[in-house]
Design brief:
Blueprint: H1 4-43, H2 53-57, H3 62-66, H4 76-98, H5 108-112, H6 117-124, H7 134-144
Length: 155
C-alpha cells in the first residue's frame, strides 16, 4: 500500500517532469515562431510587412546567401557564419520579447515569468482545492495534447 508521503513524492516528481516537458514544448514552439518570423522577414524583401507574389516567387536563395564567396559550395566557415547570423537574430527577438524592464538584458525573473510553477499548479488544480488529483493531472496532460478540460473538448 502506498502512503500519502509516497503519493506526494510521486505527484511532485510528475509535476516536475510535466514542467520540464512543458518548458521544452514552449521552447520548441518559440523556436518555430522564431523560424517563421525569420522566414517571413526573408520573404518580405521591401520590408513593408507583407509578402507579394513577386517577393514569394523571387525569394532569396538560402544557398546563394550562405555561399558568400560565390564558388558554388559551402565551406564550414560559411555555414557557421550563416548559423551565427540566424542565432543573433533569434537572440535579439528573444530579448525584445522577454525584456520586461527594457534594460537590454534578461534576468532570471523575466525568463521565469513566462512559465511560473505556481501558475502551472493552478492550471492543474481544476477544482481549486489546493491539491492536484491523479485525474486532474491526467486531464491536464490530455489537455496539453489538444483535448482535456479548461474549455477544451475531451478526446
Amino acid at each position: 500500500m502506498i502512503n500519502s508521503k509516497q503519493v506526494s513524492a510521486i505527484l511532485i516528481a510528475s509535476l516536475l517532469a510535466a514542467s520540464a516537458a512543458t518548458g521544452v514544448a514552449a521552447q520548441t514552439s518559440g523556436d518555430r515562431e522564431e523560424r517563421r518570423a525569420e522566414m517571413f522577414q526573408d520573404l518580405d524583401a521591401n520590408n513593408d510587412g507583407s509578402v507579394s507574389e513577386g517577393e514569394f516567387v523571387n525569394r532569396p536563395d538560402r544557398f546563394a546567401r550562405a555561399d558568400t564567396d560565390g564558388n558554388g559550395v559551402l565551406s564550414a566557415e560559411e555555414l557557421l557564419a550563416a548559423g551565427d547570423e540566424r542565432a543573433e537574430r533569434r537572440v535579439a527577438r528573444m530579448i525584445e520579447r522577454l525584456d520586461a524592464n527594457e534594460d537590454g538584458v534578461l534576468s532570471q525573473e523575466e525568463i521565469e515569468a513566462r512559465r511560473s510553477p505556481a501558475g502551472m499548479f493552478d492550471r492543474l488544480d481544476a477544482n481549486n482545492d489546493g491539491m492536484v488529483s491523479e485525474e486532474e493531472f491526467a486531464d491536464a496532460r490530455i489537455g496539453h495534447r489538444g483535448g482535456g478540460n479548461r474549455g477544451h473538448g475531451k478526446r
